[in-house]
Amino acid sequence: MASDTLRPMKIYFLLILIAVLIAVSGCASVRAWEKGYLADKIMQFDADKEELAWELHMFPAREGASGGYGGPGGGCGCN
């Protein structure tokens, strides 16, 4: 009987251990000379400034409300 109650706890502990090991394996140290590759324009989320400006212009119009980036607009996209 006692082993039956410990079995779910062992499985739970094993799953937690696996999750922690997977999370820790994603950590990496970056050396000073490798930081130049990470600072490249292609690595930025908003690398294309024109596209970002267009998205910020169209977002309030699509949502029908004013965002934190500009003025209010209608649903047609014309401010």
List the helices and strands and how they pair.
Blueprint: H1 2-25, H2 35-38, H3 49-63
What would you note in describing this structure?
This protein is mainly alpha-helical and 79 residues long. Helices cover 54% and strands 0% of the residues.
Major sheet: size, sense and barrel closure? none
* SSE run: HHH
How much beta, percentage-wise?
under 5%
Number of E strands: 0
Distance between the termini: 71 Å
Distinct helical segment count: 3
Structural class designation: mainly alpha
Provide the low-confidence segments as ranges.
none
Compute the CA-based radius of gyration. 25 Å
The percent range for helix content is 40-55%
Outline type: flat
Mean pLDDT: 75
In short:
By secondary structure, the protein is mainly α. It has helices spanning 2-25, 35-38, 49-63.
List keywords for this structure.
79 residues, mainly alpha, 54% helix, flat
